[in-house]
Structures are given as structure tokens and as C-alpha cells.
Amino acid sequence: MLHQWRFDQAKDGVIPAKVGAPAKFSGTAIVAKEDGLSRLQLKGTDSRAWVADDFNTVKVPKQAITVEAWVSPAALMRWGGIAGIIQDNGDYERGWLLGYVNRKFSFALASEGHKRLTYLQGTTDFQDNRWYHVVGTYDGDTLCVYVNGKLEGTEMAHSGSIIYPPKATFELGGYKDDNEFYRGAIGLHEISVYEKALSAEGIAKRFAARKNEFPLPPEPLRFTSPPQLRWENRSSLKIEWEMASALPVELKWKRADGTQEKVLKSPASRMQKLVLLDLPPDGEFLYRIEAQGGGRTKHASPWYKFDTSFYYRLPDQPKRPSPFGNDGTMQLVQSAAKRIITESGISQGYVLVLGSAEGRLAYELARQTDLQVVVVEPNVEKAQAARRTLNQAGLYGIRASVHQGSVSELPYGPYFANLIVSGSLLIDGKLPGKDASELMRVLRPAGGVAMLGQLKGSLTQADFEEWFKRGGANCTVSAEAGQLWAKVELGKLEGAGDWTHQYGSPDNTTNSRDDLVRGEMGILWWGEPGPRPMPDRGGRNPAPLAANGRMFIQGDRVLFGVDAYNGTVLWTFFSPEMRRSNMPRDGSNMVATDDTLFVTIGGVCIALDAQTGQRRAAVHAAKGRDWGWLSASKGQLLSATVKSGSSYKADSGEWYDGVGAGDVQRVVSDALLSHNPATGKEQWAYRGGAVMNSTLTIAEDTIYFVESRNPDVAKSATSR
């Protein structure tokens, strides 16, 4: 050990040294004592502490170094210092600095082998006025940063001796060189400087020996499945998560401005599920999960956020009596609507009703589903009557609309209707229009259903079949209890392509293999979710995916399932740990198949039903690992594991357009695995070298990739 200062002994501008040279302090710096713990409190304005104006007058490490500190930052800084001897002036960079960049602790150093300061950052975001044990080491080869006894970052760009400037200040609690002086608002309890690199085991023991003396922040709450939020209704959000241990929890939530804090409690369980009630629309909220561990140990998640304006379902149905009463005709219509919904399996999107039938069928479909109902009625008087009735029910202009016009020349673009029915056929026994050509033009491919029924009338099965055939479609007809029902369900649009992976498909060709799109294009639809939920494009975020007529759009910790043909937002899914950026140096965190979206959230990969967003299954990575690259096809879910916390997240406005390590480091995986996507059962695993995620490519049942077998890569604290 070269130097050690215990700041509780500071007095009259002098900080005595237990070992080495004494230090000085000035300005409004004071020695404060709270709960038996003393510190030198620097205010960040006119106070400072320093060892020497010229570091050459004291001993300093040359070949290796450890800087250890117990500190309590009071505020974030772009460039914060704890202890250092530094010159960082343009291209001239020398010395070393233990400090913090915004809210992450860092260790910077220049060496003979790399004559530039590299600011190695940890992963912890410090909380103001909490105590932390921060250590930076360099052994002549590897730079490391530790926070509260745990290794949080390594870097192997350096080699050889530390290189110092000819002259510089040896500063404590601040960042100072010849042209910059950033005074820290920070509490200092102890700082030590060694001329050797302490081991990870030794640092962990030193932290454990003294941690009970300090009011440390709560230990991070470890999730095996991070929080996932889904709308129950317009004013209720369900939050689910899974923890490594069964602990009693408190869920605290409040408005983003800190007001109206509420608490929900739940008994000890690994799997937790709570519902936030009475949420107002269009508000930003914060929430945090806290758990009580053994003894006095507390665990807490970060403060996460959600926004209640990101709700895209139809407005809730008003509670009003039926304007039609309960006559015999209405009972038949109710039964028909139930049959249509059950047999078509469609309850979201748009339903086109040809012929108003007084608005009866439109009313029942709007009442029993989340469909947006569009009625086309040729007769002016009947159209007006249907509008009045639906308005009386509180549905008109909200869940239903009536357009007066010909059913043979519909004023809509192609593919907009998920479901097409006929009210006039149901009641009057008359087919809508001369044939089914217009109906088929506006019916959505990939699951769109036309279902026309006759409750009474003279039409025959042959009449239905001929009517559809003239429109270019084949229907199936069923007869039951005097009723006739004709049904057409469309498959995928022939020649249409999908975009299921980050670069189109597993072979990374950036080609959807679509044979239809060419020449001039027009707008099919426009609408939600819009730009507000989206992160800055500069972060190089995961591409939206498209499969089987659906799109999957990832925003900032929020995911949307959208009907690709008409823009209906099918579902919304929030998760605070769901974020990935810098795609050129990593792989996307989601992949789609015809019926499932797979998305990774830290160490869990969840399978979401493509239509509903409901969770089907989950596959967990090994302890200490997150899921990285993903691919899915042919009964396989292929994935790669990275060290926890390795993925880029672009939370500080990064664009990754520089040439520094923080922009261009490639994320590498230490294992490739194949799982059954339905059961989550592992099928095989490959563990060779460090696989570069951005090179993983699949073609003709073979996986191609670049890997490094350099053993030094495995020593890194992260997978970058």
C-alpha cells in the first residue's frame, strides 16, 4: 500500500494519512457524522481535496495499481472523479482516474501499450447519497472495475507500465487536469492506493468485512423472469414476475413527478402477480419491486416506468340497455352473432357488415367482441335508422359506423376486413350484390373470414356456391335447422413474403422473397402506435418483424403486435428489461414464426402468442447468462448465451457511430443451444469458442459463424 486516507480524521484543512502522504481540503468541505459513520463532504461548488499540486512529490504506482474507495456520491456528473492523476487534453492523454461517468463508476488509465485513456465503466447505476465500495485495478495487462465486491467490467486493451504526464495534480473527490476541473458533490470515507493489483477474491473479502458499517443501497432484486405488464382493461395493468427465491414483496408505484405513491403487498412466493387498479389515462408512472431477504437484507429493483397513454384497444362498451329489446328476431341475431364469432375465431380488427338489418347484427358483434364494426347499407333511410339505433346504444362513432353506399362498389382499400358478414342476408334472405368479387377484394389474407348466413329464405346451397364462384372464391356451405351458412377463410397471400429475423430470414439476406411488391406503392393504412413509444433511431434498434399477416414492433421497453393489413394494434406488452440496440455488433432479441413471437428479456426467452400476446412458454438461460442471438424455424428455437448485462441498450442517447470500444465491441456468445419451441426442452448444445453474434447465419440446415478460441476472451467481465 502506498497511500491510505481515513477522512473522518480531517481537520483544519489537513487529511492525515494512515499510510503515505497527507492530503488537504479547502472551501466549504466539512467533516460530517451520521449514524456513527464519518465522511468528508464535498459540496461540488467551491470545495476540493487533493494530495499534491505536483504528483511527482509523492509515491505513485508504476507497473500495477489498485485504487480502493468507500464513497457516497450526492449527484451524477458527466465526468466525476474519486481519485486520480490525469491529463486528458485533446489527443494527449496520460495518468489514471477512478471516478464515475454519469451514474456508472469507472476506471481510466493510459499505458505504454495503449497511450490513450480508456474509461472502463461498471454496470451499477449509483443512487444518490448511498455508500459504495469502488475499486479499480490494473495488473500490467487487464483493467478491472469492481462495485460492492463484484467485478463489473474488464478491458484488455492495455499493456506495460502506467504512463504519467510530466506534471498533474493528485486530486481526490474531483476530476482535474490542466484545462478542466469538475468538482465532485461526494462523501469520502476512505481511499487507498496500492502498487499492485488486488485479486477479485481479496476485493470481495474486503467489501464483506466492512459492508455492515455502511448504509448500502438495497441489493439488486434478482429475477429469473423480469416484470411483464399487460393491460387487463383501460384502467388496470397486470404485472407478473418470477424471482430466484420466494420472498415477500412490496410493489410501490407513483406518478412520474413522485406524487400519489401507493403500495401493494404480496406474501412470499417465487412467482408473483399483482394488478394496478384505477389507472388514469395518459399518465407516466414509476414502479419498483422491493423484497425482504434473510436478516436485515433488503432487495429492490430499479425504478421502472410505464405510460398509460400506450393503450390502443377500443373504448370500453357503455352499459346501456339494448335498443332492440329481446324479440324473436333479436334472439336469432344474437345466436347468429355467437356462431359467427365462435366459428370464425375472430374477435379483433375490422368486421364489414353488408346490409344493416336495422343495426341488429352490428350491435351484437360490437357488444360481444373487440371488433371495429363497419356497416354498408345501400338504402338511405335504413342507413339513417341504423345510425340512430347504434347511437342510442352508445356505440356509434366509437365501436361502430354506418356508411351509405353500394355493396357492389365498396369505397375501401384492399384487405382491410378481418371478418365479413351480411345483416341483410341474415334477416331478408338476399345476397349482398351480384357476386363475391368486392367482398373478396377487401377481405384480409392470412386468416380473414367471410361468413354469410341465411336464417330464413329461399336460397339454396347451390346459390351460395355460385355467388362465391362468380367472385373468384370457393366456399363451404353447411345446413342446419333450416339455416344455411357459407364460409370462406383465406390463406396467406400467394407471393407475399415475411420478415421473421433481423435481416429478413435466418440466412441474413435482407430479402423477404416477396414477389408482389414492385413499381409505385401507396398507403394501405396509417395509424397507431405512432412515434411516442419508440426509442431514438440512432441506437440502431431491432427491426420490426412481419409474419403471417402480423407485424411486431419493439419500442422502448414496450412491444406491439399489429395487424399488417389494417393496422389494428392487437396487443401491447411492457417489460422494463426488454431492450436491445447496436444491431451491427450483436443480434436481435426477437424472432417470429407464423403463430409465435419469441423475445428475450435478460435470461429468459418467452414465447408469445402472435395473435393475443399471451405467454405460451419460457426457456431460461443458465445462471449468470442472458439470451443473445435468436432464430426459430423447423421445430427449433436456436439461441446463444452471453454473460449477464452484456447487451447494448442505448439508454444514454448512444448512436454507436464512433470508433471507440464502447461503440464497436462485438458481443460474443459462449454457447449455442437448440430447444423445442413448444416445450422448451433442450435438443442440443454447442460450446466451442466465443461466437460472434453478428456473424451467425443459417442456410440449408447448417449454422455458419465466426468464433475466437483465444482464452483471454473468456476472462472478460462481459461478453463484449
TrEMBL record:
LamG-like jellyroll fold domain: which residues?
63-201
Q: Which organism is it from?
A: marine metagenome
The record's InterPro entries line, in alphabetical order, gives:
ConA-like_dom_sf (IPR013320), LamG-like (IPR006558), Methyltransf_25 (IPR041698), PQQ_rpt_dom (IPR002372), Quinoprotein_ADH-like_sf (IPR011047), SAM-dependent_MTases_sf (IPR029063), WD40/YVTN_repeat-like_dom_sf (IPR015943)
Q: What is this protein called?
A: LamG-like jellyroll fold domain-containing protein
Q: Which Pfam families match?
A: Laminin_G_3, Methyltransf_25, PQQ_2
Answer yes or no on keyword Disulfide bond: yes
The answer, when asked if Hydrolase is one of the entry's keywords, is no
UniProt keyword list = Disulfide bond, Signal
